[in-house]
Amino acid sequence: MRRRAADSNLVIINHHLFLPTSNQMKAPDASVLPAACAVVFDEAHELEHIASDCFGVSLSNRRVEDLILDVHKGTSDADRRAEVSKAAGRL
C-alpha cells in the first residue's frame, strides 16, 4: 500500500486514516502516506470530532480530583496546598 501510494499522483483515503497518520508526517520514514501539497476532505463537518478523538485529551471531574489529591500528597508545604485548593475551587 505504501509503495502504491508513494507512486501515485492522487491518493484517496478516509479522514479516519489520514488524521492518525498525519502526525507521522514529521518522520517520513514512518509515514504510511506520502507527503502532500494539498489535502481535500470529504465529510469535513466531522473533521473536528475525528481530530479531537485522535489528538485530544479527555478531562473529567474525577480526573481533576485525582490530580488535586496527587498534588496534595506530593506537597508538604501547607501554603502550597492552600494555593492548590483555592485554584481547584475555581475550576
Report on the architecture of this protein.
The protein has helices spanning 2-7, 15-22, 47-55, 61-74, 78-90. The protein contains 5 helices and no strands. The protein has 2 domains: 2-55, no CATH class; 61-90. It has 91 residues and is an all-alpha fold. α2 (15-22) runs parallel beside α3 (47-55) and α4 (61-74) runs antiparallel to α5.
Count every beta strand, where a strand is a DSSP E run of 2 or more residues: 0
Quaternary state reads single chain
Q: Could you state the order of secondary-structure elements as H and E?
A: HHHHH
Q: Bin the helical content.
A: 40-55%
Shape descriptor reads elongated
Q: Determine the number of helices (DSSP H or I, runs of at least 4 residues).
A: 5
Write down the overall mean pLDDT.
76
Domain module tally: 2
* Major β-sheet profile: none
Low-pLDDT runs: none
> In whole angstroms, how far apart are the ends?
48 Å
Structural class: mainly alpha
Strand content: under 5%
* Rg over C-alpha atoms, rounded to the nearest angstrom: 22 Å
What attributes does this structure have?
mainly alpha, 5 helices, 55% helix, 2 domains
